[in-house]
Design brief:
The complex is a heterodimer of chains A (486) and B (483).
Chain A: H1 2-7, E1 12-21, H2 60-72, E2 76-77, E3 80-81, E4 83-87, E5 97-101, E6 107-116, E7 119-132, E8 136-140, E9 151-155, E10 162-168, H3 175-191, E11 204-212, E12 223-226, H4 231-250, E13 259-263, E14 268-271, E15 284-285, E16 292-293, H5 296-305, H6 310-321, H7 325-332, H8 335-347, H9 350-368, H10 379-390, H11 396-409, H12 413-420, H13 427-440, H14 442-449, H15 456-466, H16 473-483
Parallel strand pairs in A: 12-13
Antiparallel strand pairs in A: 1-10, 1-11, 2-6, 3-16, 4-5, 4-15, 6-7, 7-10, 8-9, 11-12, 13-14
Chain B: H1 6-14, H2 20-38, E1 41-44, H3 46-63, E2 76-79, H4 106-109, E3 117-121, H5 155-162, E4 168-173, H6 179-184, E5 188-191, E6 211-216, H7 219-229, E7 259-263, H8 264-267, H9 274-289, E8 293-297, H10 305-320, H11 338-349, H12 352-365, H13 371-394, E9 397-401, H14 417-422, H15 428-433, E10 437-445, E11 448-455, H16 461-474
Parallel strand pairs in B: 2-3, 2-4, 7-8, 7-9
Antiparallel strand pairs in B: 1-3, 4-6, 5-6, 5-10, 9-11, 10-11
The chains are: A alpha+beta (486), B alpha/beta (483).
The structure holds zinc ion.
Zinc ion is lined by residues 27, 30, 32, 44-45, 47-48, 160 of chain A.
Chain lengths: 486, 483
């Protein structure tokens, strides 16, 4: 017994549940604008305030986006889907029910392939359904939390925002894979323009179901993990919950079904007061809306209009630009970066473009913490810089400085070269410099002549020093070797 | 002027023989005179009626009769379940005692800004009931006999018109709430096809059944009022995109060749009094004499409609009434926490029948009971839809009593919910099937009016109105203002 216990390996079973705001202009069931950060209760109407007699009208754009998301996640789009009422009382729920989908959602049964450090993991998508978001309760008081507040106010601006719920199968093996799944999902949704999926704005929320598989292979008791408001916390939260569960099991205890919250400050999970009993939401078909009938033609048309997905784009980059998997992966992970690259590659060497963008340019972006869309560097600048290198106007090392300057000022590379005097030392001029270096370092020159190639580097360094970096290092080395007959 | 039908009055106003203002004042005066006995209104709006009538007169003066629809000229009684911008809308409930809506129901919007509204008519709370006794604002009396109920839930609308407190009214019908009070008060009550009239602004009782319908002195008035309120509404997804025909043009075409079926199961339903059956049979004979082919028809599952209805309607209602939680509008109880606030607000705000049906509906939808109740009731509903479908293969019009008896005494059934519910047995099948149905007065039984119900297929209101008009003409009964 003791032996088997020691050898027992713990296998995590993780499923994720995403709530995603759809990128529509208006709410799910009324004409109010979807807006973030406006003054409270400025985007409301009788429908989203649940006034007596008001009725919902489906936002067709939301249906379209939901279907497109389903298609991108390899789901089957239902020809017949039904909205249902989920009944419960809460101040942020104006009608006393949320219009959602229950047993006949718009999409079922898909998957995504998620790259992880252990290779690609295929994560199943159980279902995707559409619903309306709740409003926002604001607790008045010092902490901003319910505890210790003196009262609560409700802001209905968010109420009725089109929301898509995506539920994965419980087949994510590690916290890292969970994070990668979230990342992958986000880039897919962004790629097809279904959502901005900004976690900070609350446009993407993620919960996890976490359990440890029993020794006999059956599922263990799962807990629900909430409040993970960044991808990093998704990984850390799940890891924290798994180690909590593991400790309990090792101590011979039993996992209790519970809703856990992750606290990033302490990197620990804690259980919410287990006051909430099993809810009975009394789902039934929403009588105010007709069932959704989606024709095959309609679905096919959405399929045809679907933009290229990140995975497809990556393989296309590998094929048509002859890039490495790694470079293609880096470039296509960010939709804007990918289109920037494609723009550059139109007029510059594809591989050089990839190197510069995935390397130096991305480093500059990371350093500043900005996105490519906010950067002063234009695709034409990048292309120009690469051609300056190719026609030997600037050296490779000088080009780095030029890019940094372009990044900083937004001037074009040729202007920067001109202003900063970074033009490459021409070959005639370089000859002279090399002669000088040989004359100034007779001992080292002699050693090179004798076949000691290690010293060549020193001499190249001297050449670079003399030209303030404006020489092509490779060319300098070649000339040196030539002149020293080595 | 009070002897005129709405159609006649409208024509006279159009011809400037009578002004709309005069009509409004006649109605207001009549309200003042009889309202103490009848209690047909929760809120009377004499100033609104007069002011808007003046504006209608002004428009007639400036633009001529073409500039004003016939229906816009006649003062209207509005059931207090229809949202009226700026005028409180209580739904007969204490929970909405001080609630003033910010928008108008679509059906009312069709009258433009100058809807000449006499007042908001009393009703069973949230339209739940068959007697108007379930109102937080006291029961409405039947003008034919003040000791009797006017029917419900649109009892206030019916009583107001029967008492001459207006020429016509809008009611709402979920399981007979327009037809039954129409029958009890000697009037015409029409429930249109589900989807014919927008429900936007009709405070929902049972969303899959509710329809707004005319309550009028005769069939022509119903045709005119239906003309006013019909049509697709982009704000109501369940309103049909079906063209609105001219309901008046075919009215007098007669019933020659029309196939009329007397519904066996409803003629013999539990509680149908012999007198009521006889009056229904007489109406069928009248139609036969007018040239219709009359036969018997079976709706095998019709009587299962009642139990199915009393599951589906409360289920939807339990959800529809959840919004009355004291958070945003209406009554709010003082309490320390939010759950306590909900509990006490709803305990204080809702009446007994509302609470009873919320519990019934909540139970029927609960996990573990859903299949046995709600799902089962939906299967029955499908059976009834099929029954009607096959009946309409052989018949254009189906005929039955509107309800088993004439108006009953106030207090008679209010403590016996099942007896009260049984009153709806003939009305609910058409509601569940979504087909149009009209109740017309067939005659008197012990001095009280008895209603006869005619039903037809979806969106065939022109045929239904034509048959009803023919039956009305053949009947000896004429509208009588009471008391
Ligand atoms: Zn709204």
């Amino acid at each position: 017994m003791a032996e088997t216990k020691e050898k027992q390996t713990y296998q995590a079973v993780i499923g994720l549940e995403f709530h995603v705001h759809l990128a529509t202009k208006t709410k799910m069931f009324c004409g109010c604008r979807v807006a973030y950060g406006d003054s409270p209760n400025t985007h409301t109407c009788p429908v989203c305030l649940g006034h007596p007699g008001a009725l919902p009208v489906l936002n067709e754009k939301a249906i379209e986006l939901g279907a497109m998301a389903g298609i991108a996640l390899n789901c089957e789009v239902a020809s017949h889907a039904v909205f249902a009422r989920k009944n419960y009382f809460y101040p942020d729920l104006p009608k006393g029910y949320q219009i959602s989908q229950f047993d006949e959602p718009i999409c079922v049964g898909g998957h995504i392939d998620v790259p992880t450090s252990d290779g690609t993991v295929r994560v199943g998508i159980t279902r995707l359904h559409l619903e309306e978001d709740a409003a926002k309760n604001v607790h008045v008081g010092e902490s901003g939390r319910m505890h210790g507040s003196t009262g609560s106010l409700v802001d209905f601006n968010r109420g009725g925002t089109p929301l898509m719920e995506i539920v994965t199968e419980p087949d994510i093996p590690t916290p890292e894979a969970a994070r990668a799944t979230a990342n992958q999902l986000k880039s897919i949704l962004q790629a097809i323009g279904v959502s901005e999926a900004d976690m900070e704005k609350g446009q993407l929320r993620c919960d996890a179901n976490v359990s440890i598989r029993n020794p006999d292979g059956s599922f263990g008791v799962k807990t629900e993990l909430k409040n993970m408001n960044s991808f990093r916390f998704v990984e850390k939260g799940i890891a924290a919950e798994l180690s909590r569960q593991q400790e309990i099991i090792e101590d011979g205890g039993r996992i209790e079904q519970a809703t856990m919250h992750y606290d990033p400050a302490t990197d620990e999970v804690y259980s919410l007061r287990s006051k909430e009993e099993a809810h009975d939401y009394r789902y039934f078909p929403e009588p105010d809306l007709l069932p959704l009938e989606l024709s095959t033609e309609w679905i096919e048309e959405k399929k045809a209009r679907l933009p290229e997905l990140p995975a497809e784009m990556k393989s296309r980059f590998v094929e048509s630009y002859d890039l490495s998997e790694y470079d293609a992966g880096v470039l296509t992970a960010d939709r804007d970066l990918a289109s920037f690259y494609e723009e550059v590659a139109k007029s510059a060497d594809a591989k050089q473009s990839a190197n510069w963008i995935s390397g130096d340019l991305r480093a500059l972006l990371n350093e500043e913490g900005i996105e490519i869309s906010d950067s002063k560097v234009e695709p034409k600048d990048m292309a120009e810089l690469i051609s300056l290198i190719e026609n030997e106007t600037v050296s490779r090392s000088a080009a780095k400085a030029v890019l940094a300057k372009v990044f900083e000022t937004g001037d074009s590379p040729s202007v920067v070269v001109e202003k900063e005097g970074l033009a490459q030392t021409g070959s005639g001029e370089l000859d002279g410099v090399i002669e000088g270096v040989i004359a100034d370092n007779p001992d080292e020159a002699e050693r090179v002549r004798d076949g000691d190639k290690k010293v060549v580097g020193f001499l190249v360094g001297q050449v670079m020093k003399a030209t303030r970096g404006n020489a092509d290092g490779g060319r300098a080395r070649e000339l040196l070797m030539e002149k020293l007959g080595s | 002027m009070l002897e005129l039908t709405a159609f006649e009055l409208a024509q006279k106003i159009h011809a400037k023989e009578i002004s709309a203002r005069e009509a409004a004042e006649v109605a207001n005066t009549r309200v003042e005179k009889v309202e103490g006995d009848i209690n047909a209104f929760v809120t009377t709006t004499p100033d609104i009626a007069t002011e808007r009538a003046e504006r209608v007169d002004e428009r007639l003066k400036n633009g001529g009769s073409d500039s004003v629809n016939l229906w816009e000229t006649v003062p209207l009684v509005v059931k207090d379940v229809l949202s009226t911008k700026g005028t409180r809308t209580t739904c007969g409930s204490k929970i909405l005692e001080d609630f003033t809506p910010v928008y108008n129901a679509t059906a009312l919007e069709k009258f433009g800004e100058d809807l000449i509204m006499v007042g908001k008519a009393n009703m069973d709370e949230f339209a739940m009931g068959s007697s108007t006794e379930n109102s937080a604002y006291g029961p409405t009396k039947n003008p034919w006999d003040l000791s009797r109920v006017p029917g419900g839930s649109s009892g206030g609308s019916a009583a107001a018109v029967a008492a001459g407190e207006g020429w016509w009214a809008l009611g709402t019908d979920t399981g007979g709430s327009v037809r039954q009070p129409g029958a009890f008060c000697g009037m015409v009550g029409l429930k249109p096809t589900y989807g014919r009239v927008s429900r936007y602004g009709l405070v929902a009782f049972a969303s899959s059944l509710d329809q707004i319908g005319p309550m009028t002195r005769d069939v022509r008035d119903s045709a005119l009022l239906l003309q006013a309120i019909s049509g697709h509404d982009p704000n109501d997804s369940t309103s049909a995109k079906v063209e609105v025909p001219d309901y008046l043009s075919e009215l007098e075409n007669g019933v020659s060749g029309l196939r009329v079926g007397v519904v066996t199961e409803l003629m013999n339903a539990e509680g149908v009094e012999p007198e009521v059956r006889a009056i229904t049979e007489k109406t069928a004979r009248d139609l036969e004499e007018a040239g219709a082919d009359v036969g018997e028809v079976s709706l095998p599952h019709a009587t299962y409609g009642l139990p199915a209805y009393y599951i589906i309607a409360p289920a939807e209602l339990s959800s529809n009434l959840a919004r009355f939680d004291g958070v945003r509008y209406g009554h709010r109880a003082t309490a320390s926490g939010v759950h306590e606030m909900y509990r006490r607000t709803r305990e204080e705000g809702f009446g007994d029948e509302a609470k009873r049906r919320i519990m019934l509906g909540t139970y029927a939808l609960s996990s573990g009971y859903y299949d046995a109740y709600y799902a089962q009731a939906q299967k029955v509903r499908t059976k009834i839809v099929d029954d009607f479908r096959s009946a309409f293969r052989d018949f254009d019009i189906l005929i039955s009593p509107t309800c088993p008896t004439a108006a009953f005494e106030i207090g008679d059934k209010v403590n016996d919910p099942l007896a009260m519910y049984a009153n709806d047995i003939c009305a609910v099948p058409a509601s569940l099937a979504g087909v149009p149905a009209i109740s017309i007065p067939g005659g008197l039984s012990d001095g009280l009016p008895v209603g006869v119900q005619l039903m037809s297929d979806h969106f065939t209101e022109p045929t239904l109105l034509r048959a009803a008009h023919a039956a009305e003409r053949a009947s000896e009964f004429r509208f009588e203002m009471k008391p």
